[in-house]
């Protein structure tokens, strides 16, 4: 199993990169993980709803183009499925047993396109709260790492 994080947005603040890199290094011994940063659509100051929809479609197209044929797409969004750490660990263990490669899609500031939502095998919510786009990267990689430590009986996770 391989995990790829397909995310809209590049050049994150240093604090985001530092936090992400820490957990990214930690998870590598457990599962090969990669992040693919895709460009965000150029936005104006007074964009209309039509403009915003156009940006989502453009960003969604870049996510779908980056998706590999054998990957199962999971869309990260606030209205998605809620998982406990233990349920995430169990889900990831099933992915590993099935040999499934996973692509986790993080949309831009305006969310994911309908096309990405429809293509996704399922939808996952990290929180009922709306999280700042850069923070999602850190929360996601930490939760993936935590789930892997549960699977491997590593002492990091204390329930």
Description of the molecule:
The protein has a single domain (3-41, 50-152), classed as SPOUT methyltransferase, trefoil knot domain (Alpha/beta knot, 3-Layer(aba) Sandwich), CATH 3.40.1280.10. 45% of the residues lie in helices and 23% in strands. The protein contains 5 helices and 5 strands, in the order βαβαβαβαβα. It has helices spanning 14-27, 49-66, 85-98, 114-119, 133-151; strands at residues 2-8, 32-38, 71-82, 101-106, 122-125. Strands 2-1-4-3-5 form a 5-stranded parallel β-sheet. Helix 1 (14-27) runs parallel beside helix 5. One of its GO terms (molecular function) is rRNA (pseudouridine-N3-)-methyltransferase activity. Keywords: Cytoplasm, Methyltransferase, rRNA processing, S-adenosyl-L-methionine, Transferase.
Topology:
Blueprint: E1 2-8, H1 14-27, E2 32-38, H2 49-66, E3 71-82, H3 85-98, E4 101-106, H4 114-119, E5 122-125, H5 133-151
Parallel strand pairs: 1-2, 1-4, 3-4, 3-5
Helix pairs in contact: 1-5, 3-5
Helix share bin: 40-55%
- The total of helices stands at 5
H and E order = EHEHEHEHEH
Strand order of the largest sheet: 2-1-4-3-5
Q: Give the mean pLDDT.
A: 93
Work out the radius of gyration: 16 Å
- Classify the beta-strand content into a percent band: 15-25%
Beginning-to-end CA distance, first to last residue: 26 Å
SS-based class: alpha/beta
CATH architecture: 3-Layer(aba) Sandwich
CATH class: Alpha Beta
- CATH superfamily heading: SPOUT methyltransferase, trefoil knot domain
Stretches where pLDDT is under 50 for at least 5 consecutive residues are none
Count all strands and give the number.
5
Main sheet properties: 5 strands, parallel
- The shape is globular
